[in-house]
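Onboarding guide, step 5: your first structure request.
Type a short instruction followed by the sequence, for example:

Predict the 3D structure of this protein.
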Amino acid sequence: MRLDANDLLLFNRVAEEASFTKAADRLDLPTSTLSRRIAALEEQLGERLFIRTTRKMTITPFGQAILRHTQQMASELTAIDALIEHRNVLPSGKLRVSLPSDFTQELISQFLAEFIATYPQIHLDIDVSQRRVDLITEGFDLALRIGVLADDATLAARLLGYFELGLYAAPGYLRETAVISTPDDLLSHHLLRLHSDRGAVELFHGQHSWQGELATKTVANSPNILVNLALRGAGITRIAAHSARSYVESGQLIRILPEWQSKKRPVWIVFPGTRLMPSRTRLFIDSLVRSFESLT
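The system replies with structure tokens like these:
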């Protein structure tokens, strides 16, 4: 037996009004239609819900049992209507976001500031960590991730774009060390690298490619630290081009072998794929997708 939820809600309204006529007026239905729907429901249930006489209408004991459930149904629908209305008016609530430590804070900070100003009722809880948080068990709404994603059926993701990586060093460092005119020259230098930036350095120039293992003198989980070390002549660092842009423009850093490109790294926004997405989460995702081109 498959009950029609709408008929159950009609029964609930008749019970609340204690009158078919009043309920029909509230529902903007003909009384005859309402009466016919309730009769059909009683036939489907195999038992009377109301006892009607010329003077009054009472709910049967079976009807009282059904009423408790229909009242809960009506209450849930009211709550959903309120949620939808509230969402359309002003999204609010806490939004937990995980950022990887090798994601440039300067890059994302402008977006976050604009988002906060646009949606003041949304409270951001931002966690910056080297580890990849478990969104489901740790209660995160979103995570930004760089590189290849793990295969996880509980998560969904949207591609934001790609980061271009480059090799950078301070002018003073380059003046005092061996000249770098070809990729092979890099082998006599050491690299300041991120924990997440493992393996050989790969470079591409047209149809040509080069791969080599550079000695690593320092590793860190923050691009800002690596930039500051490079600025002070501590070595060559490989970071996203946007991280070094302002320093290159000011002459504090020089891009090494700019005609040789590193493989670009994908940037994703990841979120639980097995639960209903709140409006604040969707707003954050859509806003970040729209703005990411200008950010990078």
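Each response can be followed by summary notes, for example: Residues 61-89 form the longest helix (29 residues).
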